[in-house]
Amino acid sequence: MTNNKSLLIAVDFDGTIVENKYPKIGEPTIFAFETLKKLQEKGHRLILWTYRYGKELDEAVKFCEKHGVVFYAVNQSFPEEEYDSKVSRKINADLFIDDRNIGGLVGWGEIYRIILEEKPEHLKPKKKKGLFSFLK
User: Fold this and answer.
1) What separation in angstroms does the CA of 116 have from each of 4, 12, 62, 78?
2) Which InterPro entries does the entry link to (predicted)?
């Protein structure tokens, strides 16, 4: 997935960045903060996208800041966005990292590889052949 394009990446907190101990804050998931910091170093913008709100949300944001990650936005598509109950809460992001994906969280090492390293051969698009190449 490596390219020059900066991605907007929404990241869940409980069960993704930290072990799920909601409403408490669990231990950091292995390689989560290292990967998030590397994504930011490469120019990607991170959004904390979580169920948390109020005091629990403030604690999560401070916990991440303590571990070196300051988010571009929190529970919104961009920092200046104002909440409007008439508009969908779904945010605009290129990627979503969440433990509730089908198949669960793949692990931060794999997330790092997928986003920051070159795609393996079997994931690269196949070269298109001519219209009648199947006749050869």
Assistant:
1) 11, 19, 26, 23
2) HAD-like_sf, HAD_sf, Phage_SP01_Orf1
